[in-house]
Structure formats: C-alpha cells, structure tokens
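Lab notes, practical 5.
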Amino acid sequence: MTGKTEIYHGRTASVGNSRGIRLEAAFFKSHGLNVGRECTVRPLAGDTFIVSFAGVSGESALDEQEQDPVFAGFLQFLENDMIARPESISPADDLLAEMEALVGDSVQD
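Output from the prediction step:
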C-alpha cells in the first residue's frame, strides 16, 4: 500500500437476467479477487455502498450480522496507514494527559 487512494472505475451492466457492476480488471488483480468470489453489498446513504468480499485476508472473525461495515472500513484504513507510514505512529500519552486536564475528575462512579 503506497498511501495513495486507489480509485477504480466501473459501469452498470446486464448480466444474463440480472444486473451487475463491471469494474476494471486492475481492481480484481490488485486485490487478489478471482472470478466467482461471493460478495455482500450494503447501502450506506444515497449513492454510497460498501462491497465486502468473502474470504479476503484480514476478514474479521465476527459473524457477518455483528460487523459494522463502516467501522470495519475505518479500522482497515487505519491499519493500511500504519503499515504505509509507521513513522507517523506516536504514543497517545500526551493526548491522554490533555484529555484528563480537560475533564479532570468529572466522571462519577
């Protein structure tokens, strides 16, 4: 992962009696997705969707019903960024001290 956002283009198409989305071959090659791989599409809002492919490495062990696709995507983004730019990782000690100074002992049991 280079840290550069990958963008692939596609087009809706008729596939037999169904509909499909045709994507550039580079998408499948880049992510090791072979023909016939099952996927799940989740609408988010408007024209935004999340497509998840079964069996992709790093897949969560959680049952599909328990997964939050937005949060899982965010965690994957963080993981990719940490791998691509490990020098940007720093301890959270200073941030935690700032947070404690802001809220102090306001949390009650």
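Observations recorded by the TA: The radius of gyration is 20 Å. The mean pLDDT is 79.
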